[in-house]
């Protein structure tokens, strides 16, 4: 799943910027304050990973519009089908028919839509057929956005949660035992089935439901009846009070990352690593996560991978990003030529200011101009003149 076309309108300093024929990797290069970070943030917004704030709108407070063409391969469709995205049909033919019916802008392997956000905070996905197609967000890839702060908690938690047992994820989501698409309403209609099983036959999820049932009937049932007696009398039958019992499995079972170093007596959290090593760790985590072919499509956005890194580690970071681009789409900005070497010229776009002083993307890539823009020359990269 890849963004093949992108148009951004009325976002931050960008009035109108578009890029065509985007490949599995997109590298944004250019001088400071030309809009590279704004492009990354706009993509994150369109994918539901960022919510625009008042400062993102122009003076006229015009709607932010981000138009995207999302290419879907046959593998992407198969993963969406297995994940019951958009439609719950179990047969492929029925699922695909329902999928194309609910997403009419899907054509020739691409899904087109426009993300629209207004100043009042309303967000919608316009596909040209519906002003707001509620099914579109279900198709969007997971986004991992590494900005300059290199905050890792959210991304690490998301990635590690997918490595946990499927039963634990069901418990964490608090879904219905009979239908994973529904949230548990604590109707306890599953208890009859569970009572027919021996303790050895029960799995962890079923055991949790039994625990909730026992706790509810031992404590909350009688207490809620007493509360309702008083409340109905005192409020003159204003309504019925109910209590929701949650075991907070997600808080009980959490995966934490630690690192053991030779010069330190005890392991310490990876969150305490320096920002440079944090970048390498997160890229390594993503690389390990993406090794499994069953993963849902993802999109990596990264701001200046080279910051906080020694030139040798910059090259290592570039190699990791190149390998990741074979598994998921990678979009990043950079000021370092060390990040450009593994990629081809079609994957590099120069961001400049046009005659009006507004961000624009050059249609054709000229590596000499790009190196000059970065303050380098071919002689610098080849170490010509060094003895």
From TrEMBL:
The Endonuclease GajA/Old nuclease/RecF-like AAA domain, residue ranges: 1-339
InterPro entries: AAA_GajA/Old/RecF-like, Bact_Antivir_Def_Nuclease, P-loop_NTPase
Pfam families with a match to the protein in the record: AAA_15 (PF13175)
Domain of life: Bacteria
PANTHER family cross-referenced by the UniProt entry: ATP/GTP PHOSPHATASE (PTHR43581), ATP_GTP PHOSPHATASE (PTHR43581:SF4)
Protein name stated in the entry: AAA family ATPase
Upper taxonomic lineage: Bacteria, Bacillati, Bacillota, Clostridia, Lachnospirales
């Amino acid at each position: 799943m890849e963004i093949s076309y992108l148009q951004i309108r009325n976002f931050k300093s960008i009035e109108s910027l578009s890029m065509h024929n985007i490949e599995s990797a997109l590298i944004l290069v250019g001088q400071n304050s030309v809009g590279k970070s704004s492009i990354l943030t706009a993509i994150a917004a369109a994918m539901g990973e960022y919510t625009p704030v008042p400062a993102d709108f122009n003076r006229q407070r015009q709607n932010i519009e981000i138009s995207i063409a999302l290419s879907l391969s046959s593998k992407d469709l198969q993963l969406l089908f297995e994940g019951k995205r958009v439609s719950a049909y179990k047969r492929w033919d029925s699922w695909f028919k329902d999928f194309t019916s609910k997403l009419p802008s899907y054509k020739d392997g691409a899904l087109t839509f426009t993300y629209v956000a207004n100043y009042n905070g309303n967000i919608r996905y316009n596909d040209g057929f519906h002003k707001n197609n509620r099914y579109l967000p279900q198709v969007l890839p997971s986004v991992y956005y590494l900005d300059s702060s290199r905050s890792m908690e959210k991304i690490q938690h998301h990635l590690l949660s997918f490595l946990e047992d499927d039963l634990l994820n069901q418990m964490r989501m608090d879904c219905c035992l009979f239908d994973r698409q529904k949230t548990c309403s604590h109707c306890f209609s599953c208890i009859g089935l569970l009572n027919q099983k021996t303790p050895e036959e029960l799995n962890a999820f079923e055991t949790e439901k039994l625990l909730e049932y026992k706790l509810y009937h031992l404590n909350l049932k009688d207490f809620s009846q007493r509360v309702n007696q008083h409340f109905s009398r005192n409020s003159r039958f204003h309504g019925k009070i109910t209590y929701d019992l949650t075991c907070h499995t997600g808080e009980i079972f959490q995966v934490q990352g630690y690192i053991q170093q030779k010069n330190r007596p005890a392991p310490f959290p990876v969150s305490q690593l320096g920002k440079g090593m944090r970048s390498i760790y997160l890229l390594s985590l993503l690389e390990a996560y993406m090794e499994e072919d069953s993963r849902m499509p993802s999109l990596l956005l990264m701001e200046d991978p080279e910051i906080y890194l020694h030139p040798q580690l910059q090259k290592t970071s570039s190699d990791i990003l190149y390998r990741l681009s074979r598994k998921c789409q990678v979009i990043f900005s950079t000021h370092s030529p060390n990040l450009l070497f593994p990629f081809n010229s079609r994957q590099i776009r120069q961001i400049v200011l046009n005659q009006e002083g507004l961000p624009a993307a050059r249609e054709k890539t000229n590596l000499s101009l790009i190196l000059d823009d970065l303050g380098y020359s071919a002689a610098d990269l080849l170490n010509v003149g060094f003895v």
